[in-house]
Design goal:
Largest sheet of chain B: 6 strands, mixed
Helix content of chain B: under 10%
Structural class of chain A: mainly beta
Number of strands of chain A: 11
Strand content of chain B: over 45%
Distance between the termini of chain B: 41 Å
Number of helices of chain A: 0
Oligomer: heterodimer
Order of helices and strands of chain A: EEEEEEEEEEE
Helix content of chain A: under 10%
Radius of gyration of chain B: 13 Å
Largest interface: A-B, 25 and 25 residues
Radius of gyration of chain A: 13 Å
Largest sheet of chain A: 7 strands, mixed
Number of helices of chain B: 0
């Protein structure tokens, strides 16, 4: 079984809809991250969390919110989706110390 | 602000060749540097992690070097195979928060 899982893997939605992307991990890591990937722009950090009570904005947090329900679960929400949020979204985890990050398989989101 | 550049953007080589992928970064005050592989439409697989105090790391046919003072890292792939075809991403971590700044990647194709 994969250590970092994301659901759904693909989602098509319409402008204005609320969307939630979910991430679960079995690696026992405290730190979790959400990134988005756009062609030609690389991956950019949206939000990150060091533990259940510690959530921080990343480089491009506008239009997004997150929830850390447990050590193993970190959700990303788009309150009112817009077309320029069409992208590939990745969840990642890391442990304190080495800082090596491990990524999930990604969610391809299309906003029409 | 940290910026990461990867050159070339795309590379095609015949099977069996040794090759070098380049990564440069603007702020030498990094915590570590990580190389990833991404297959089309898939997640990121961590290949190598180099801590700021290290000069190189090896894993099988892969060798990554780090020259912090000049802001450069290279990924050396020995005896390339068609299965090595993928996009290779370099990411630097500039703080204990483990936030990664990514390059836009080098798309590698190894031909028969």
């Amino acid at each position: 079984d994969a250590d970092v899982t994301q659901t759904p893997r693909n989602r098509i939605t319409k402008t204005g809809k609320r969307i939630m992307l979910e991430c679960s991990q079995t690696k026992g890591h405290d730190r979790m991250y959400w990134y988005r990937q756009d062609p030609g722009l690389g991956l950019r950090l949206i939000y990150y969390s060091f533990d259940v009570k510690d959530i921080n904005k990343g480089e491009i947090s506008d239009g997004y919110s997150v929830s850390r329900q447990a050590q193993a679960k970190f959700s990303l929400s788009l309150e009112s989706a817009i077309p320029n949020q069409t992208a590939l979204y990745f969840c990642a985890t890391s442990e304190i110390g080495l800082g090596e990050q491990f990524f999930g398989p990604g969610t391809r989101l299309t906003v029409l | 602000k940290q910026e990461v550049t990867q050159i070339p953007a795309a590379l095609s080589v015949p099977e069996g060749e040794n090759l070098v992928l380049n990564c440069s970064f603007t702020d030498s005050a990094i915590y570590n540097l990580q190389w990833f592989r991404q297959d089309p439409g898939k997640g990121l697989t961590s290949l190598l992690l180099i801590q700021s105090s290290q000069r190189e790391q090896t894993s099988g046919r892969l060798n990554a070097s780090l020259d912090k003072s000049s802001g450069r890292s290279t990924l050396y792939i020995a005896a390339s195979q068609p299965g090595d075809s993928a996009t290779y991403l370099c990411a630097v971590n500039t703080g204990t928060a483990s936030k990664l700044t990514f390059g836009t990647g080098t798309r590698l194709q190894v031909t028969l």
